[in-house]
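Lecture notes, continued. The same structure-token format from the folding unit now serves as the input rather than the output. Read the line below as a description of shape only.
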């Protein structure tokens, strides 16, 4: 990753999110001259890693594309913005790292919990939310570029995400995940 470039972390989850991946591929032709100021870290899932790697390379956009990431902290530490789904683990990590985000909730999640999660982050001022059937490549590009240019808005969103972590909601979820991991590691 090149220092000084605006870094977008795209998360489709460990299995990828094909509609999010396809959307990102569609954005490739919409970045224009801004492409030279961007770089991506993309967790694409096994099925789409080749397609995305090729799309970024052919467009000349620096990107590190992975099928999955065992340790993701480094990616969050480099990111200026996260684009992804709205599962509990992802949102806990976004809150922990205090990052602004653009969320595209998985529309068929049980009890529409991803939509509720995303709206909670949006209501707190930590995220922009787009429904999967409504978001387009031009809309995503416009949103990313607007946030890229508006440092104050990104900082406000970052503070809001951090407040969600500190308030005990998302932060407590991440703490519980850590406790489970540690307990399982001790047992195994």
């Amino acid at each position: 990753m090149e220092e000084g470039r605006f870094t977008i972390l795209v998360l489709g989850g460990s299995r990828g999110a094909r509609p999010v991946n396809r959307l990102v591929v569609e954005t490739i032709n919409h970045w224009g001259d801004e492409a030279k100021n961007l770089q991506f870290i993309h967790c694409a899932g096994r099925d789409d890693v080749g397609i995305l790697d090729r799309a970024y390379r052919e467009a000349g956009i620096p990107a590190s594309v992975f099928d999955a990431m065992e340790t993701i902290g480094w990616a969050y530490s480099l990111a200026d913005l996260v684009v992804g789904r709205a599962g509990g683990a992802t949102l806990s990590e976004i809150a922990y790292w205090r990052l602004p985000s653009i969320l595209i909730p998985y529309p068929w999640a049980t009890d529409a919990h991803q939509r509720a999660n995303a709206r909670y982050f949006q209501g707190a001022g930590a995220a922009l939310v787009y429904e999967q059937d409504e978001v387009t490549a031009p809309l995503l590009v416009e949103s990313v570029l607007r946030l890229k240019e508006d440092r104050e808005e990104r900082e406000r969103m970052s503070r809001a995400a951090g407040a969600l972590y500190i308030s005990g909601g998302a932060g407590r979820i991440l703490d519980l995940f850590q406790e489970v991991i540690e307990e399982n590691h001790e047992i195994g």
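Point for the exam: The CA atoms of residues 37 and 134 lie 27 Å apart.
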